[in-house]
Design a protein that fits this description.
625 residues; alpha/beta; Rossmann fold; 5 domains; six-stranded mixed sheet; 20 helices; 20 strands; globular
């Protein structure tokens, strides 16, 4: 039985038909990725499923009692709510109790409040009665990973990115039956994305999501639905499987289109004779002619090929940074950074949100002035800077006018030229869209148009600050092909790991206090290196004395050492369970002052986590008994 089923749904805005007669379903346990180009109605489709919009025709049905949750691109919260009130469902008693408990403990109140002890004691009793400690543990995990701080703060004080993370946290905590996610990785830094990816892949959830993050799709989804030319194509596998099967489909379609092209030549000759007798037979042949023509045109338009734009001359001196420092409110965001850029430099910039990545870009381009140090730019350098803020487009201008206002043609070198229309088509703006007004474009289409205005200004040093946000996968492929052929310097800030892996040779890694380290390799290589380093550090902490390496052998039973470990685990688990019960008794006693009660509740959570870890290890070893 499906949780959800769409039956022949159609949606159009004026003359623009987004999709027509779409039918598909989502069953329990499916994690479905929806792939389509910008402007084809992905968000509209999610809005229809969520009940925020209505189809022009067709029907969406749900299994009785199904609870769904929807992460919108721009979530809304009622003004005046605290983060705690916005985060946890007030209709759910467990959620409401945990909300009160978390808000009280996160506020850091002390024993100077006379009624605090009584209130906290009452909440602990309710938490125990409702068996809400596991739920509270999940709340803390999600809040920590998404870096959501004080729960008594107001949602009015949050930025757009913080609101998106708050909405995501609420969905993960509630764990609805059917979860709809529209670009869940936007506004998350790389560390958050990797945690969310692992969380969704591990949990038994039912998900329909839209994202351009190809690694995310590959790790999380077990089915891909592609919306292309108004049709749905289903692929029962992850993103890698989708790529393989789509390639097979395209090869079949290409062979068919080639045959259509050959037939078209013959049919064109026949049509030129202008048959006089408009019999039923000749009319059918005329209709078939136009069908063949459409197939041949689609085939020719699908293979524009690679382009390499002519670049402004690049001299010997590129860009030199010497001991650059920039602070805001005494907090260093770039701290004593030096680097000399060379010809053909292809670097990525990674680090947590708010760590100073955009600050460095603004220092390089002169939008900000460094507090200390010097920046020397070569005389021939021409920056092309794509900013997160995007382009303010005149909605009353046609799409092609936005481009022709910059240039009518784009030089590809060696006498080759692209017209503005050809360049737009290369970046997935079909000819009929080029004559639409910019105001009709989706958010992703506007960002794509802005990106084009940066690329066509003949830069030799491209700086891209989160260029992948809101771009569809088809456009990302085009952009990656374009940038692979770019012969100038390339500096990229992005949370798209695939994009970074494909385009950069090394990464600048931001850490605490504005420190920047240069790592020689792409992002995945950096993460593997970092993971090995963390594992080595943990191993060094656990191992007091070096041990002789054991020769690997096929495992058939517990070793003597593992038998002793199992016995020790049984004692540890027994002790932890007793400690957990004692801590719970203390919390329920009503005799602890507020500060002590807070510490005991934190100790309880730590004990519960340690108990879970040791129990998992005990289960692992006990399988060999």
């Amino acid at each position: 039985m499906s949780y959800f089923q769409a039956q022949q749904i159609t949606k159009a805005y004026g003359e623009k038909v987004l999709f027509e007669d779409l039918s598909f379903s989502v069953a329990p346990g499916q994690k479905v990725g929806l792939i389509a180009r910008n402007g084809t109605g992905k968000t509209t489709l999610l809005n229809i499923i969520a009940g925020l919009d209505q189809p022009d025709s067709g029907l969406c049905t749900f299994q009785n009692g199904i609870k769904q949750a929807y992460l919108q691109q721009e979530p809304y919260f009622e003004p005046g709510l605290s983060i705690s009130q916005a985060l946890l469902n007030s209709d759910n008693e467990i959620s409401r109790t945990v909300s009160e408990y978390e808000e009280l403990t996160s506020a850091g109140l002390s024993g100077n409040h006379p009624k605090l002890n009584e209130r906290l004691h009452h909440l602990v009793e309710r938490m125990d009665a409702l068996q809400a400690w596991d739920y509270e543990s999940r709340v803390k995990q999600v809040l920590t990973q998404l870096k959501i701080g004080r729960l008594d703060a107001r949602v009015d004080e949050l930025s757009g990115g913080q609101l998106k993370r708050l909405a995501l946290a609420r969905i993960l905590i509630e764990e609805a039956d059917l979860i709809l996610l529209d670009e869940p990785t936007n506004h998350l830094d790389l560390q958050m994305i990797e945690w969310l990816e692992a969380y969704l892949a591990r949990k038994k959830l039912t998900i329909l999501l839209v994202t351009h993050d190809r690694y995310f799709l590959d790790a999380v989804c077990n089915e891909i639905i592609e919306l292309e030319n108004g049709k749905l194509y289903n692929y029962r596998g992850n993103y890698s499987y989708f790529l393989e099967k789509k390639q097979e489909r395209l090869e079949t379609e290409t062979a068919f289109a080639d045959r259509a092209t050959n037939l078209l030549r013959k049919e064109t000759e026949w049509m030129r004779r202008m048959p006089q007798a408009r019999t039923t037979k000749s009319k059918a042949r005329i209709d078939a002619f136009y069908d063949l023509k459409d197939q041949a045109v689609r085939s020719s338009e699908s293979g524009v090929g690679e382009i390499k734009m002519e670049m402004a001359r690049l001299g010997k001196k590129i860009l030199e940074l010497e001991h650059i420092t920039k602070r805001f409110d005494r907090q260093p965001f770039v701290n004593d950074f030096s680097y000399v850029f060379k010809r053909g430099e292809r670097a990525g910039i990674v680090g947590p949100n708010g760590s100073g990545k955009s600050t460095l870009l603004n220092l390089i381009t002169g939008s900000l002035k460094a507090d200390n140090g010097t920046i020397t730019t070569g005389e021939t350098i021409r920056f092309g800077y794509y900013r997160q803020e995007g382009l303010q487009v005149d909605d009353n201008k046609k799409v092609i006018e936005v481009i022709t206002d910059i240039a009518e043609t784009i030089s590809l070198g060696k006498g080759k030229m692209f017209t503005a229309a050809q360049f737009l088509f290369y970046f997935n703006f079909p000819h009929h869209v080029q004559n639409d007004y910019a105001g009709k474009l989706s958010g992703g289409e506007k960002r794509r148009l802005y990106l084009m205005t940066v690329l066509m200004q003949n830069p030799n040093f491209l700086i891209l600050d989160e260029p992948t946000n809101d771009l569809d996968i088809a456009t990302l492929n085009v952009l990656e092909d374009f940038l692979e052929n770019f012969e100038g310097c390339l500096l990229i800030v992005s949370h798209d790991r695939y994009f970074l892996d494909r385009l950069v040779d090394h990464v600048f890694v931001f850490s605490e206090e504005g420190r920047i380290r240069d790592f020689p390799g792409n992002y995945t290589q950096y993460r593997l290196s970092r993971s090995k380093q963390v594992q080595s550090e943990k191993k060094a902490e656990k191992t007091e004395a070096p041990q002789k390496p054991l020769k690997p052998k096929e495992k058939t039973k517990l070793s003597f050492k593992e038998q002793k470990e199992l016995e020790a685990l049984e004692k540890d688990i027994e002790a932890l369970e007793a400690q957990k019960a004692a801590l719970l008794q203390q919390m329920n006693s009503g005799q602890l002052p507020p500060d002590a009660l807070l510490k005991v509740s934190q100790k309880y959570a730590e004990t519960e986590q340690a108990l879970e870890t040791k129990t998992d290890r005990w289960l692992e070893l006990s399988e060999w008994l």
